[in-house]
Design a protein that fits this description.
There is one protein chain. The chain is mainly beta. It contains three helices and 19 strands. The chain has helices at 2-16, 287-290, 294-305, and strands spanning 66-78, 83-94, 99-105, 109-116, 123-126, 130-139, 145-153, 170-173, 185-188, 209-218, 222-225, 228-234, 239-250, 257-260, 263-266, 275-279, 314-320, 329-333, 338-344. Strand 15 (263-266) and strand 16 form a beta hairpin. The termini are far apart. Mean pLDDT is 88; it is low at 1-9 and 327-340.
């Protein structure tokens, strides 16, 4: 009886250990083979010198030894000589390492005085393009120092490009009234390193600073600059001094000025920001037709980019003899007034 039970148990174990499985049927796939045409790759024999194949020169961002924080300008003009008479007060801080020198871009200047903010005279050298100022001691990156420069600038062009035909920076239009009925104007075009033709600065696109400008002009002329006009004052010599303040940091090439006999036409504000157009007086009644739908445009681009227009105002101005743009127009962000600067003949 025990032998019989053992045989039954062994049969049960063998039945439980049966590893036979049903093999899935694999579908047959037809493979198509096709012989393609032979491709031959050739190159001309190398005959040039080895340096011909060197990598192009690396153009890094400008080195930042000093960080320009704020620029305060007081400027007037000699229209007959086409000169800018100015005082620049710069707030500067070492970018990282301690410094005892400050180098500023300033093309075709004459300097009458260079001092610290407290009036201490400073030694400097000048090569016609840059002024290198010797500071009285080393300053570290936790310290801000102030430099003040009195100067006369004579903007002139050394060249240009297909996009911007002149690098003069600041342009006098009919300054002596010799060109018939063409209006007298002054306007600037600083892109990308041309504003250093009318004020000393660290004229590099990777720099950022705030600004304030006191600009003295004939009393009957309008002015336009970055930010908001804070005040104005009439002077005894039949001039007026306007004070413009821009307290959002922006690149030095975006500093702008326009001066002349302009009518200022206000459009509907956009998000409580002024929208206006500077045109010659005879076109004042047509200004809104010349620049239609500007507030709607600000809404459109703010929505499509997801970035609301950030500056204090949006201004557009039409000037004579502008130097850029395939259709003689250019829209340029002047940090606080996105100005459409249109050339007229």
């Amino acid at each position: 009886m025990q032998r019989f039970l053992f045989v039954l148990a062994m049969v049960g174990v063998l039945a439980a250990c049966d590893t036979t499985k049903q093999v899935a049927q694999v579908p047959v796939v037809e493979v198509e083979e096709r012989l393609l045409d032979t491709l031959y790759v050739t190159a001309p024999e190398i005959t040039q010198e080895e340096e011909f194949y060197a990598l192009p020169a690396y153009n890094p961002s400008a080195q930042q030894d000093n960080d320009l924080l704020h620029t305060r300008l007081e400027i007037a003009f000699d229209w007959d000589k086409e000169q800018v008479i100015g005082t620049a007060q710069l707030d500067v801080r070492p970018y990282f390492y301690p410094v005892n020198q400050l180098t500023l871009d300033a093309k075709s200047f004459t300097f009458s005085q260079v001092t610290l903010g407290d009036g201490t005279p400073l030694q400097y050298t000048y090569d016609g393009k840059q002024i290198n100022i010797q500071l009285p001691r080393y300053y570290n990156r936790e310290e801000t120092y102030q430099v003040k420069l009195s100067y006369v600038a004579t903007p002139r062009a050394d060249g240009g490009s297909d996009a911007i035909t002149s690098d003069k920076g600041l342009f006098f239009i009919n300054p002596r009234g010799e060109e018939g009925d063409k209006p007298r104007q002054i306007w600037t075009q600083g892109e990308t390193e041309n504003n250093s033709r009318w004020f000393p600065t660290i004229d590099k696109p990777n720099e950022r600073c705030t600004q304030e400008v006191y600009v003295t002009v004939p009393a009957n002329y309008a002015t336009l600059s970055n930010g908001i006009k804070q005040s104005f004052q009439y002077n005894a010599d039949d001039t007026r001094t306007d004070y413009w303040l821009m307290d959002d940091p922006h690149a030095p090439y975006l500093f702008m000025l326009a001066i002349g006999d302009f009518a200022v036409v206000e459009d509907a504000p956009w998000n409580n920001k002024p929208v206006n157009y500077y045109v010659e007086p005879e076109f004042a009644t047509h200004a809104k037709a010349i620049f239609p739908h500007t507030p709607e445009m600000l809404t459109f681009f703010s929505n499509i980019t997801g970035v609301p227009y950030p500056w204090d105002k949006y201004s557009q101005i039409v000037v004579r003899d502008y130097v850029s743009g395939p259709w003689k127009t250019q829209r340029v962000l002047f940090s606080g007034s996105l100005c459409s600067v249109q050339k007229g003949n």
